[in-house]
Design a protein that fits this description.
The protein is of the alpha/beta class and 374 residues long. It has 11 helices and 13 strands. The protein has one domain: TIM Barrel.
Length: 374
């Protein structure tokens, strides 16, 4: 089974961006460098994150269309912030202007994330809104004239007059671990995403989504979001993990854990249970599954695990995820720019991944970095 491998574009970056000392200035020029690297090195594309009053993913993605040729853009979208017809117009326009390079990532959000955008709904209601929203959006993208009266939105005579390149619409990615989320995924997602849980937990989750989708006559693909610490030797990789752990200040860990405890996200709760909230002295103490390190979960929300090792070890673990049903991998390392090259140099040649004959000569960065630096 072939793979799709995506990188990451986020508003914060640096060797250890959870700390001001380890954070870089992230502006358009810097993000464009990363996008060009993703495009040149042959990754399938990149996920553009959203939220927190930071760079808008639509504006960023649109600005990167003319500086890239092949990479696909996974644009994160919160349902309910804009009307479904407006989102359909944005999606069709982007898909046309990029010649079919758009993917949408449906992000329902959590209790602390959505109120600043004017959405004051509890956990299950947010997923009910998501279900209603994407049902209407899919009808619009399919060319229907939509009259709809629902609990969360009302449309009369809504029609998209601008066809997308991809039919019937750009693919939909979706993540969520709660019961309502799994049902929404079965009804609407083309690719169901999960964070980097150990393979047995991830396998059980995708089995549930697959069965629910099949009951509705649908087929769903599966993707996983993972961090990578890949170096030429295992020792160098674990030294890099230790270097990162040593820069996770106790105050930063405490603040991140407090925020995570306040979240009503089931996925965040599952990640917290995997990671724990204690910072050990040694990085290997956070190895929760062979070669799977939970250190990032101490200082951030969302995907808190990383595969650590030499290229052969990291490739073997990725192939283990592939064997349980994942064919889409959204990966990253820190800093994002340098690690696009390191991962392309060391790891991608070992995976069943078509780079389109790109990036073979782009070996100018990765091998020359100090192995202990992220």
């Amino acid at each position: 089974m072939s793979m799709e491998i995506y990188w990451y574009l986020i508003p914060q970056d640096g060797p250890y961006p959870w700390s001001e000392k380890g954070r870089r200035v992230v502006d358009y020029d810097y993000l464009a460098q990363i996008a060009r690297a993703v495009d040149h090195l042959g990754y399938t594309g990149a996920l553009l994150a959203t939220g927190g009053g930071e760079h808008d993913a639509w504006v960023l993605g649109s600005s990167l269309i003319p500086v890239t040729k092949r990479m696909k853009f996974i644009i994160a979208v919160h349902p309910g912030i804009v009307a479904p017809l407006m989102l359909a117009q944005k999606a069709a326009t982007f898909d046309q202007f990029s010649d079919g390079r758009l993917i949408l990532n449906m992000v329902t959000g959590e209790n602390r994330q959505m109120p600043p955008y004017g959405i004051e709904l509890d956990h299950d209601e947010r997923y009910a809104l998501t279900d209603e929203y994407w049902g209407v959006w899919r009808r619009l993208m399919s060319g229907e004239i939509v009259d709809y009266h629902g609990k969360y939105m009302n449309l009369r005579g809504a029609q998209l007059k601008l066809p997308a390149v991809q039919k019937p619409y750009p693919p939909l990615f979706f993540g969520g671990s709660s019961e309502p989320a799994l049902s929404v995924a079965a009804r609407h997602a083309d690719t169901y995403l999960t964070w980097g849980e150990p393979p047995p937990l991830a396998a059980a989750k995708i089995k549930t989504v697959r069965e629910r989708a099949e009951a509705l006559g649908r087929k769903v693909k599966f993707g996983i979001r993972l961090n990578l610490i890949v170096r030429e030797t295992k020792q160098e990789a674990w030294d890099a993990a230790q270097w990162l752990l040593d820069r996770m200040d106790d105050s930063v860990v405490a603040g991140a854990q407090e925020r995570n405890l306040a979240s009503d996200s089931v996925g965040q709760r599952r990640m917290r249970e995997i990671v724990g909230g204690r910072k050990p002295k040694h990085a290997r103490d956070l190895e929760i599954y062979p070669d799977l390190w939970a250190g990032f979960g101490l200082v951030r929300n969302g995907p808190g695990t990383a595969i650590v090792g030499d290229p052969e070890t990291v490739a073997a673990r990725i192939l283990e995820y592939r064997d349980i049903g994942f064919d889409t991998f959204i990966v990253s390392g820190q800093p994002l720019l340098e690690e696009t090259y390191r991962v392309a140099d060391l790891l991608l040649p070992l995976l069943p991944f078509d780079r389109g004959n790109r990036g073979e000569t782009a070996h100018a960065i990765g091998p020359y970095f100090n192995a202990a630096r992220g």
